[in-house]
Amino acid sequence: MMKKTDLKILTINLDYTLAMDSPDFGDAQERNIDYGKYVDKIISITHSRKKMGLKKKILSDQVEIYPTSSTNPIFFIFDALKLSREIFFDHKIDLVLTQDPFITGLVGWLIKKRYKCKYLIHFHGDFWENKYWLREKWYNFILLLLSRFLVKRADGIKVVSSGIKEKLVKSGIKRRKIRVIPTPVDLGKFIYCNPDKVRNLRKKVNENWKTIINVGRNDPSKDYRTLFKTIKTVREKYGKLAFWQIGAKVKLNDNITFGENMKLSSIGKISQDKLTNYYHASDIYVSSSRHESFGKVLIEAMAAGLPVVATATTGSKDIVQEGINGFLVPIGDSEALARKILFLLNNSEKAKKIGESGRKFVKEKFNYQKLIEEIVNFWQELVEK
After folding, report:
1. Cys bridge to 334: 199, 230, 308, 360, which one at CB 3.0-4.6 A?
2. 118-123 and 95-98 beta bridge pairing
3. Tens of pLDDT, residues 336-353
4. Interatomic CA distance for residues 84 and 183, integer angstroms
5. Are strands 178-180 and 156-159 parallel, antiparallel or unpaired?
6. Residue 34 φ/ψ, nearest 5 degrees
């Protein structure tokens, strides 16, 4: 166990769940509390809309959350800078870290210039050298230019996969500034489940049916068009089947229709204790993403013992070992996704072995406590430079 430091950290982010009394999804509050165990103070400025009614929240003796309560998203920059003035009046901040190299990154750089503290940018997305991301929104090219300006001025950059690091290095960013540390995932939440609730979920489908699961928000990067084509192909070549989509709340019946021989379910965001039961009630996890910087849900699914079939994104390449804990296929290739899923459906023993290998792999490589300590150590190194 590492020793506690005297660091004072200011974070700039867009995750409003940090300021909620009882967030019904995600684990950001818990992670920040755990970071706080090793520093003197973490103060987080997070974007929130005024209509949300969120107020300052104390997560622990070390962690305080300040929502901006912005009347309009464009005012977030000004609201965050105003809050930072109040915070620096009361605290000598050692390091400002930002959730992304865009708007939060801009706020962080302005704070660095004004208060002369160290400045760390997080890359939680695969933005550089990514044609899929550039095509998703008209303003992403402007964000890309902004990120290239800000990254050169950061004291450190934390990325969640080796592929992101290599892209940055290829673009001229000094290797020594970049640290690869995946997002900590409390694997214990997904290794274990509620057996009764898992049985009930299986009964709702049919205990003898196979179930495929996907978890993700409703976002173009998830490429649900390819996912739906994949599921339709699998169903045409297999018997009775169930498919669950968790997080996006999409209308599956508009995309996949097979009557009584297929059970479809799509729900919105749910808490992790509920999500783990869905994982354990499933047989295969599938991801059709066009781009992922990491692949947190792949780790969750593997911790629950599921074999994984995923597109070969930058992040998934760090997690999926071909034929050992899952399979990787080309991005946008629904036929390739379907072939690998069908292989697992038709080879139950092999699927079980792959699932067991995945659980062993994530337990060894993605130790929650170790990653928390690596992150705090990186903070300390930047401040001491």
Report:
1. 230
2. parallel
3. 999 999 999 999 999 999
4. 26
5. parallel
6. -70, -40
Q: Is CATH 3.40.50.2000 what the domain over 8-184+367-384 is classified as, yes or no?
A: yes
Q: Which of 309, 335, 208, 198 lies closest to 261, judged by CA?
A: 208
Task: Give DSSP secondary structure letters for 198-261.
Answer: HHHHHHHH-TTSEEEEEE--S-GGG-HHHHHHHHHHHHHHSSSEEEEEESS---GGGT---GGG
- pTM comes to 0.91
The whole-angstrom separation of Cα 184 and Cα 371 is: 6
Q: Which of 330, 335, 337 is nearest to 286 (CA)?
A: 337
Report pLDDT digits (tens) over 175-186.
Answer: 999 999 999 999
- The tokens describing 39, both together, are 């520093």
Look up the CATH superfamily of 188-365: Glycogen Phosphorylase B; (3.40.50.2000)
Strand partners, 246: 215, 267
